[in-house]
Amino acid sequence: QQEPEEKKIALELLETEQAYVSRLHLLDQVFYTELMKEAKTGKTVPEEVVKMIFSNISSIYQFHAEFFLPELQKRMEDWNRNPRIGDVIQKLAPFLKMYGEYVKNFDKAVELITAWSEKSPPFQELIADIQKRKVCANLTLQHHMLEPVQRIPRYELLLKDYVRKLPPQSPDRGDAEKALEMIFMVAKHSNAAIAEMERLQNLWVVYQRLGLEDDIVDPSNELIKEGPIQKISTRNNSTSEKYLFLFNNMLLYCVPKVIQVGAEFQVHLRMDVEGMKVRELKDTEFPHTFLVSGKQRTLELQARSAEEMNDWIK
C-alpha cells in the first residue's frame, strides 16, 4: 500500500531534521568547542573572536537536539495512531526567533574567519584539520555555517507542501495551517533582521564618505537618495558641481573634496526636511532646475535630466 503523501513529507521533515542536528553538532560540539579550547591557550585567536563567529549556535543546537528532534521522532513512531505534526511545529515556531541573531551575524562571521585565517596560521590550520575529517564531507566551515540560515525557509517549504497534501478532513489541518502561519512570520522576522543589517551597513558607508561628523551619525536615519547636482549661482549666471544626500530628516548639501583623504565630501549645509518646500522652476537658460527652500536657506539646483529632476522633487 502506498504511503499517504502527507506522511512522506512528515518523514522528509524528520530525516532532514536528523541530518540538520548532526550538522549543528559539528558546528557547536566540534568546530566551536575545539576552536574555543585552542583560543584559551592564547596561541591561535582571541576567545572573543571565536564567540563572535559562532554567535548563538549553542542555543540553536540544544533546542533542536534536545527538544524538536525528539518530539518529531515520537510523533513519527506514533503516526499510524495519531497522524499529526502541526502541534509540535507550533511549539517550535516561537523558538525560531533565535535565528534572527545568527542570521544577522552571518556575514560578519564569514569575514572574521577570512581575516583571522590570514592573520593567524595556527587558526587556519586547525580549521583545515577539522575540515579534513570524514564528518565534514569535504565541505568548508563557511559552507556548514550556511545551513542554519537556510533552515527556516526549508521548514516553510516543507510545511506548505504538507498542508497542501493534507486531506480536507485531516485532524491535523487546523494545527498545521496555524503552524505554517507562525513559521511564515518567523521567516519574515529573520528577513527583516537581514534588511536592517544591510540598511545600517549602507548608512555607515555613507557616514564614512561624509567624514563621520558626529552630529550627523545617527543609526535611525534613512538614506533616501544621493547624487551629483549643479548649483546655480544667480549672481554670476554660472553653475558649480555639488552633491546631495537626502535623508528622512535632513538634506546634506556637500562639496566633493579635491584631495580625498578620509572623507569624499565636505558638508556645506544641513537643511531640515521639516518645513522644507520643493518646486520646479521654469528657467529657459537652465533646464531641469528646481528650488529647495528650508528654514536654513534656499537653493536653486539643476539636475542632468527631467527624469532626474522629477526623482529629486518626488
TrEMBL record:
Name this polypeptide is given: FGD2 protein
Any single GO CC term annotated in Swiss-Prot or TrEMBL for this entry: cytoplasm
Domain DH: 5-193
Name of a matching Pfam family: RhoGEF
One GO term (biological process): cytoskeleton organization
Domain PH: 222-314
Main location group: cytoplasm
InterPro entries: DBL_dom_sf, DH_dom, FYVE_RhoGEF_PH, PH-like_dom_sf, PH_domain, SOS1_NGEF_PH
Localization: Cytoplasm, Cytoskeleton
Record keywords: Cytoplasm, Cytoskeleton, Metal-binding, Phosphoprotein, Repeat, Zinc, Zinc-finger
UniProt lineage: Eukaryota, Metazoa, Chordata, Craniata, Vertebrata
GO molecular function terms attached to this record: guanyl-nucleotide exchange factor activity; zinc ion binding
Statement: the UniProt record of this protein carries the keyword Zinc: yes
